[in-house]
Specification:
Strand content of chain A: under 5%
Order of helices and strands of chain B: EHEHEEEEHEEHHHEHHEEHHHEEEEEH
Oligomer: heterodimer
Largest sheet of chain A: none
Structural class of chain A: mainly alpha
Radius of gyration of chain A: 12 Å
Number of strands of chain B: 16
Number of helices of chain A: 3
Number of strands of chain A: 0
Radius of gyration of chain B: 21 Å
CATH topology of the largest domain in chain B: Chloramphenicol Acetyltransferase
Order of helices and strands of chain A: HHH
């Protein structure tokens, strides 16, 4: 699977906003990285699709322990999860 | 199904429509009525009838598919909608008043039992005066000034979410908001027949796995005539919050689908055990929306695919174990893109005559279609707070099911209240069995017995 390198701050959030708007949710005008994903209609199936998209696009599988409502409430939070999985361990 | 003149307006069906066309035809041929469901709005007071009448006319002008006829292309054998000139009278609108109703609408007929009335309407043909209506509206005024609006619709038109979207559109028309509707169907990539066949492989393998587990319904594989029935129980906001909190704890806030599938399977298993039967497992078909989440359309067509869950006996011992098993299956099926594979399979079968289509569907499970129907449709039209000048206090769907499988359990939410809807076909579920099934549902929802919720069911 060809995956993209994790982009720098801001770019990842922008990419995820585009991904969510184009392929997952009918997002309202002004939707951004801090918009509430649940208010835009995020449900079980959309979350599963998002997980698969993240795997395909960035080669990262998010562990079940991190699949919390809080972590999926905004694009910014999802981006933080992705970054945390790729950050070199101390 | 007849063929039509090439001059008439034609609208192609969508992939999932093919199954609903075959199922509707199956119900008609086996004298079970048609595949009609109801979406019910409970209102604080009677809606403005002048507004509603005007909207009922406008909606058929705007969407003539509401009185459309299904045809087949005699060359490709693909079904399509033939759209008529919009009927001048608009959608049929029935007026009723319950015994002791404060508001008796002019020309309304009295009904002594609202539930009985709605169940009867579900079994009646939607056609009126030679016009092939596919939906109707009924307004029932009740004691204390409350009111109920029932929107009955053919599953040939759309799925439950589509019904919510059209009701919302009717509500907008009542308020004079008549913006042009832009139908945006999800574009399908062009693939060859061979590629489609390859894509069906995952779904076919899944059906083989499920056939080994076995598929058993409470109604059995034999089609049953007779009426459809339902019971809807609306939980209080406090009870609903308790249920949601428990679901969050068990499957995580992200995957309530797994909990509700498990709950439905265990409830049906309770009835089977009461009958002294211990089937090896059940097959649960769970429709999944293909509309973009949060979208206001497309309104029409069945915009769904289906996940087929298996519920094997060994994993049904506790709601925790069952929910964990369903969660695992959900993840596996999503990763294997079984939703897309099932859609590809339906697409390959679209040209089949309905009776052949159903024969193929039923042959894999020895005459059964699935063990029971189930869905959690989420929040019912959350953007619609009022309808024709009245405030909505509750809303839910009442599906009328065919047999097999003959039973279904459905969940939805409206303004923080969970609605539990049990639907069954006459002869598939006895009175005591119905109470047992719901007793198990509430025990799993709350983690304790709730006999108080079983009064009157």
């Amino acid at each position: 699977m060809a995956t993209q390198p994790i982009p720098q701050q801001a770019t990842l959030e922008q990419q995820l906003v585009t991904l969510v708007s184009e392929r997952l949710l009918e997002t309202p005008p002004g939707f951004n990285e801090d918009s509430d994903l649940y208010e835009s209609g995020l449900d079980s199936m959309a979350i599963m699709q998002l997980l698969i998209l993240v795997e395909e696009e960035y080669g990262i599988a998010l562990p079940e322990s991190e699949l919390t409502r809080q972590n999926f409430s905004t694009v910014r939070n999802v981006a933080s999860l992705i970054r945390a999985r790729t950050a070199p361990s101390a | 199904m007849n063929t039509a003149s090439p001059r008439t307006t034609r609208v192609p069906i969508q992939i999932a429509d093919s199954f609903l066309i075959a199922l509707d035809d199956f119900m008609r041929r086996t004298r079970q009525g048609r595949h009609v469901s109801q979406s019910v709005l409970e209102m604080e007071r009677t809606p403005d009838l002048d507004k509603l009448r005007a909207a009922a006319v406008r909606v058929t002008q705007k969407y003539p598919i509401l009185a459309g006829r299904l045809r087949r292309n005699w060359i490709t054998w693909l079904p399509y909608w033939e759209l008529p000139e919009p009927p001048s009278g608009g959608l049929p609108l029935g007026l009723w008043h319950g015994a002791g109703a404060a508001d008796v609408l002019p020309g309304s007929m009295e009904t002594t039992d609202t539930q009985e009335l709605l169940q009867r309407i579900l079994m009646e043909p939607l056609e009126r005066d030679g016009i092939a209506f596919k939906a109707r509206l009924d307004v029932v005024t009740l004691k204390g000034g409350a009111c109920l609006v029932a929107f009955s619709w053919s599953h040939l038109l759309f799925d439950g979410k589509g019904a919510e979207l059209l009701l919302t559109e009717i509500g907008r028309l009542c308020e004079g908001q008549d913006a042009p509707y832009e139908a945006r169907e999800t574009p399908q990539p062009r693939v060859t027949f061979k590629e489609k066949l390859l894509k069906t492989k995952a779904a076919i393998n899944r059906f083989k796995e499920l056939a080994l587990i076995g598929c058993h319904s409470l109604g059995g594989p034999r089609p049953r005539q007779g009426r459809g029935y339902y019971r809807n129980i609306t939980l209080t906001p406090e009870d609903s919050a308790r249920v949601n909190s428990r679901v969050d704890q068990m499957t995580g806030a992200l995957f309530p689908i797994a909990f509700y599938v498990a709950c439905t399977a265990r409830a049906h298993d309770r009835v089977f055990r009461h009958r002294g039967m211990q089937p090896s497992g059940y097959v649960v078909s769970v429709p999944v929306q293909t509309r973009k989440r949060g979208a206001r359309g497309p309104l029409f067509h069945n915009q769904v695919t289906v996940f087929f869950f298996s519920a094997v006996r060994e994993r049904l011992g506790s709601i925790e174990a069952a929910a964990a098993a369903m969660k695992q299956q959900f993840a596996e099926m999503s990763r294997a893109r079984l939703d897309q594979s099932f859609n590809a399979l339906l697409e390959v079968m679209m040209r089949l005559p309905s009776w052949v289509f159903m024969r193929v569907v039923r042959s894999q499970f020895k005459g059964e279609i699935c063990s029971f129907f189930h869905s959690h449709t989420g929040a019912f039209a959350p953007e619609m707070t009022g309808f024709a000048g009245g405030k909505i206090t509750n809303a839910y769907h009442l599906p009328c099911l065919g047999a097999p499988p003959g039973t279904g359990l459905f969940f939805s939410e409206r303004a923080g209240r969970v609605n539990v809807t049990l639907s069954w076909r006459e002869g598939c579920l006895g009175d005591e069995e119905r109470r047992l099934l719901l007793d198990q549902v509430f025990e799993d929802l709350f983690g304790e017995k709730r006999p108080d919720l079983l009064h009157g069911v």
